[in-house]
Request: fold
Amino acid sequence: CIWSVGILRRILNALRWILFCPFMEVCISVFECEDGRHRLDGTTVCFSGGHIGAVIISIISALLLLVLVLFATFFYGERQATEEDAEARMGDSSELLLVAFRLGLVIFVSFNRNVLFVLIQ
Reply:
């Protein structure tokens, strides 16, 4: 039973630090429309037909991902870092601010693709 908790802990840790931004960007990409058409698939008319279903699934997925990440942020590890586990959290407010910053950055970059190239340079 303890090994399963360790695996769950590593999966939640990977979700928090590695997979959060790409998964959230995929969920947000459904909303990227230009001139009534989807930016990535020019044949899809935005907010009509099958696109409405994709939007609903995207909203549910984004909220579920955010809840999982916040759950892992609030309840992960020890209250204080120890010598045995350097990844244990030190405090709630700084990690919550980091999650909010990363979420804001993903939303900002998703809707402002030209700014991404300025940030890289």
User: Anything to note?
Assistant: The mean pLDDT is 79.
